[in-house]
Design a protein that fits this description.
Helices cover 35% and strands 21% of the residues. By secondary structure, the chain is of the alpha/beta class. It has a single domain (3-234), classed as Rossmann fold (3-Layer(aba) Sandwich). Strands 1, 2, 3, 4, 5, 6 and 7 form a seven-stranded mixed beta sheet that branches.
């Protein structure tokens, strides 16, 4: 990159929104501490990575969505923070992450697709010169199919949730889709998930998706977090 190009890149204003969808069921116990550590390191590591490329982030916002299982205990099946601006609200973000506790979950599949749908519907940044809208899913389990009556009958089930994976995909949008819930050029989906439904289907079919297959009970490897940070920084 020549000096003129470097100066042009440095003058641009970059907006990065990151939504962390974190499985907080019992089975995540061995993994959750690693996920929390990685989540807490997100702001500093991303800022350092961008600085190494001669770019600064003008707007960095982080949001945490926690999911368990609507069919097990609906009251804590899905919780979320608002977007928290960093560094101004860093304490609130860190507090939300540290409070994550593995509990519940019922049967093996969890309500991961509901969390993904909620993340996609976030109030993403639409200004500044360049934007990156990133959803990261951390889970060690399959997900219940959307529209499963055991989930949808819950008293607090989100009313606007798609009723099938195909409908969710339509909201994600194709490469040239104008009906996507997210800006196509800005969106990225990063999956740390097992090789099970629906994660393998999403990895195969959805654009702008990076997939890190995981094994139940194993923690998040350091190199995987490095890849996630690099993916965000290199795509801006």
């Amino acid at each position: 990159m020549n000096t003129r190009t470097q100066n042009a890149a440095a003058s641009l204003k970059y907006a990065v929104d990151i939504v962390l969808c974190i499985d907080a069921t019992d089975s995540m116990g061995p993994t959750l501490d690693n996920v929390k550590h990685s989540a807490l390191s997100f702001p500093t590591r991303l800022t350092q990575e961008m600085a190494s490329k001669g770019r600064g982030i003008s707007s960095l916002r982080l949001k945490v969505i926690t999911f368990r299982d609507f069919g097990d205990y609906p009251d804590d099946a899905l919780t979320q923070t608002s977007f928290l601006t960093v560094p101004e609200q860093l304490d609130e973000f860190e507090s939300a992450v540290r409070e994550l506790t593995p509990t519940g979950g019922g049967d093996l599949p969890e309500s991961g697709l509901e969390a993904l749908a909620l993340a996609m519907a976030s109030d993403w940044e639409t200004g500044l010169d360049r934007r990156r809208h990133v959803i990261v899913v951390f889970t060690d389990a399959a997900a219940h199919p959307l529209g499963d009556p055991r989930q949808t009958k819950a008293h607090n089930y989100p009313p606007n949730t798609p009723r099938s994976l195909d409908e969710l995909f339509q909201r994600w949008g194709h490469a040239q889709s104008r009906n996507s819930a997210m800006e196509n050029s800005a969106k990225r989906l990063l999956l740390f998930a097992p090789e099970e439904y629906p994660w393998t289907d999403i990895a195969d079919d959805w654009n702008h998706t990076l997939y890190f297959p995981s094994t139940a009970g194993e923690g998040l490897e350091e190199w995987e977090m490095d890849e996630i940070i690099a993916t965000i920084a290199n795509s801006l």
